[in-house]
Specification:
The structure holds 2 protein chains of 2 kinds. By secondary structure, chain A is of the alpha/beta class. Chain A is 36% helix and 16% strand. In chain A, the strands form 2 sheets. A 5-stranded mixed sheet of chain A has the order 5-4-3-6-7, covered by helices on one side. Chain A has a two-stranded antiparallel sheet with strand order 1-2. The longest helix of chain A is centred in the first third of the chain and has 16 residues. Chain A starts with a helix and ends with a helix. Chain B has 1 helix and 30 strands. Chain B has a 24-stranded antiparallel β-barrel. The chains are: A alpha/beta, B mainly beta. The interface between A and B is large, with 60 and 77 residues.
Chain lengths: 201, 487
């Protein structure tokens, strides 16, 4: 028994030294059509957020994730429901009612969730455009979306928005231009968002 | 034993070699808990550990989970043990699988989670809410493209004969015959050990799903051929749902008709078609004899407010058992602030047993950040009224209570703190004598991938959301130290 445990520990140590790509998956979307990881990659960063209909923090995270999806054109936000098949209608209806800009997928048999050890929603992964996991975060409390945005901006090659990155004539360290940027503002990966300086002062 | 270092070295070389060639994906989670439980049994202090990982390389994946639960306590509050039951000790591999995936093909051996359609005919799963494992073990084949094919052959422990197995096998196919219309068919065979022989159940099912932007309809029907029981009527199940979307207004409905269709509760997940997931009668397995409908609407009232209305009725063939289930909720959500004002109503009648029960509970749930302190306050207040017929007195007895719950979540840098208090008041005059569940939970990430959690107090069990994470917990009283490590 000790030998088996030792073998497993050594294997895990060896394995943990290597890279962390997102495992390939093939999951149905709300229209019952399969979506694969390969189809989501290449355009830009991808946020994959596991949620369930019974999870209130998951629902609180959605508007924040939607704001990111609206703000960064090349960002893809994927919501993966881990609800049971019989509860999927409820989950679908919730998303339909909100009109979010998400790719919504369903993983009722936990095929992807199990590979990523997702047991308690919400559980969020941010991938670069090659599919490497660059951030993993469990849970959601207000403010977490700022960490997501920092990571997304770094993947897009956009510098931080606060302070010197504001286009303000005067330094505005206390203002958060990012929060005040117009929600419909679209960015491509090389653009820096225009700061609404009138709101900063 | 002298070969062991060589084997280890070979395995290490293999893993490192694989890493050099391509990127194997390893994901693991270890959850260790040291628990002091304040119940009067002989094992107050004990240790639990769950260790699981999945390893993927190219088209192969392999996963396992070892769980030591010493002891494994029930999720039922009424089962707090006075003395430790030896059967409650549990130790072993709870999950073990290997699979090969290539393009749309999958071959899988080991622990299986799978469902056919809505789960009405077959579903092998873990029930997190009740802490029950209904997974089967066996082989599975899947082809998942435009045509979706699944086939499995598996075994599961017999509930009547310790150490012996029942068998479950089946196949499911689904194809989008026209662009919005998908047709599917399933077959499941169940062999259940009864005494010294196996009882055979053959289940055939068909389903259709029509999905368009504005509406969605699904119909699922199945028949059951119970081969052993002479004179037994064959089983039948029909479940259908429909949803339509008209801008801010959503409308939907469901219909169910189940006759003698509860062949194995552990590998079925029968849709109940009501808001609160209530069975027709507390002592009747779902699917035995049940008909019913559900109607619901969701109306968005502006950007932040929405109204949910849901009504369902169910009855048996003889109309001796009847129930209705209603829910009305007004949800408001803006950023981190959310509030729900709701009213729930569940009524069950069994005229044969002269039993009538009604539960009605208004509830108010609110969660909001307190300024810029990082503090999030949430509260819930339920008023539960029950009316039940006392068979001895032959009169209806009213039983009511209040369920208040308060919670404060606070983040101080990396430290997350959750303070909670829940109670059960029979009436306001006996508030001080009532049962209370106060609790405190501290969470701190000691390393990038390791969280340390300290819980102290009491919890009533069920779904809890603390510090932004939701999970199902068993009733508990005491102190718990947890260390969760991801790798």
């Amino acid at each position: 028994m000790k030998c088996q445990i030792l073998v497993i520990i050594l294997l895990l140590l060896a394995g943990s030294l290597v890279a962390e790509p997102m495992p390939e998956f093939r999951l149905p979307n709300a229209s019952n059509q399969n979506v694969t990881l390969a189809e989501l990659l290449g355009r830009g960063p991808v946020i994959i957020d596991f949620w369930a209909d019974y999870c209130q923090p998951c629902k609180q995270a959605m508007p924040a994730l939607d704001a990111l999806a609206q703000k960064y054109d090349s960002l893809t936000v994927v919501l993966v429901s881990i609800d049971a098949p019989k509860a999927q209608t409820k989950a679908k209806n919730y998303l339909k009612g909100k009109n979010f800009k998400f790719v919504s997928l369903f993983d009722p048999d936990q095929t992807l969730a199990k590979k990523l050890n997702v047991t308690e929603p919400p559980h969020t992964f941010i991938l670069d455009k090659a599919g490497e996991i660059v951030l993993e975060h469990k849970g959601f409390v207000a403010g977490d979306e700022q960490d997501y945005e920092i990571k997304v901006r770094s993947l897009l090659g956009i510098e931080a928005e606060k302070g010197s990155d504001c286009d303000c004539e005067e330094p505005c360290e206390d203002c958060d231009c990012e929060e005040k940027a117009a929600p419909e503002q679209k960015l491509n990966p090389v653009q820096t968002p225009k700061s609404p300086c009138e709101n900063c002062h | 034993m002298r070969k062991l270092p060589l084997i280890l070295a070979a395995l290490l070389l293999l893993v490192c070699g694989l890493a050099a060639q391509s990127a194997p994906l390893l994901n693991g989670l270890n959850e260790a808990s040291l628990i002091y439980r304040s119940v009067p049994d002989s094992l107050h202090v004990y240790f639990q550990n769950s260790f699981g990982f999945s390893l993927g390389y190219k088209n192969f994946s392999f996963g396992m989970k070892f769980i030591a639960e010493l002891p494994k306590y029930s999720t039922n509050q009424s089962e707090l043990l006075e003395e430790l039951d030896p059967d409650r000790l549990s130790l072993g591999w709870k999950e073990l699988y290997a699979s090969y995936t290539r393009d749309a093909y999958l071959i899988h051996a080991g622990t299986i989670e799978e469902s056919f359609g809505s789960g009405l005919i077959f579903r092998s799963y873990q029930d997190l809410e009740l802490d029950e494992d209904h997974r089967v073990t066996g082989f599975k084949f899947r082809y998942d493209d435009k045509l979706r094919l699944k086939a499995l052959y598996s075994a599961l422990p017999s509930p009547t004969s310790l150490g012996r197995l029942d068998l479950a096998y089946g196949a499911d196919a689904e194809y989008p015959i026209l662009e919005p219309l998908t047709l599917g068919a399933s077959f499941v065979g169940m062999q259940t050990l009864q005494g010294s022989s196996y009882k055979q159940d053959d289940i055939l099912g068909a389903r259709a799903k029509l999905i368009q932007d504005q509406f969605e309809i699904s119909v699922e029907g199945a028949s059951r051929d119970d081969k052993l029981v002479a004179g037994m009527l064959n089983g039948l199940a029909v479940f259908t749902t429909a949803s339509a979307y008209f801008g801010p207004v959503q409308l939907g409905g469901a219909y169910k008709h189940y006759d003698n269709f509860s062949y194995r509760n552990r590998v079925q997940d029968i849709p109940l078609a009501n808001h609160h997931n209530e069975t027709l009668a507390d002592d009747l397995a779902s699917g035995t004899d049940e008909r019913g409908f559900q109607a619901w609407t969701n109306i968005a009232l502006g950007q932040y407010l929405s109204l949910n209305l849901d009504y369902a009725e169910a009855w048996d063939q003889a109309r001796e058992k009847q129930m209705n289930d209603a829910y009305a909720g007004l949800d408001w959500q803006s950023g981190a602030t959310a509030a729900t004002l709701s009213y729930s109503h569940i009524e069950k009648v069994d005229s044969a047993l002269r039993h009538w029960q009604k539960e009605a509970y208004p509830a108010f749930v609110v969660s909001f950040p307190a300024g810029k302190t990082g503090l999030v306050l949430s509260g819930e207040f339920k008023t539960v009224e029950k009316l039940a017929l006392d068979p001895v007195q032959n009169e209806y007895v009213e039983i009511g209570h209040y369920e208040p719950r308060l919670q404060a979540d606070l983040s101080l840098g990396k430290l997350s703190l959750s303070l909670g208090a829940q109670s059960w008041w029979n009436d306001f005059s006996s508030i001080l004598q009532s049962q209370y569940w106060p609790s405190v939970e501290l969470k701190y990430p000691i390393l990038a991938d390791s969280d340390f959690v300290l819980f102290a107090g009491k919890e009533a069990g069920g779904k809890v959301c603390r510090n932004g994470v939701c999970r199902y917990v068993a009733p508990f009283s005491g102190v718990r130290l947890e260390l969760a490590t991801r790798f």
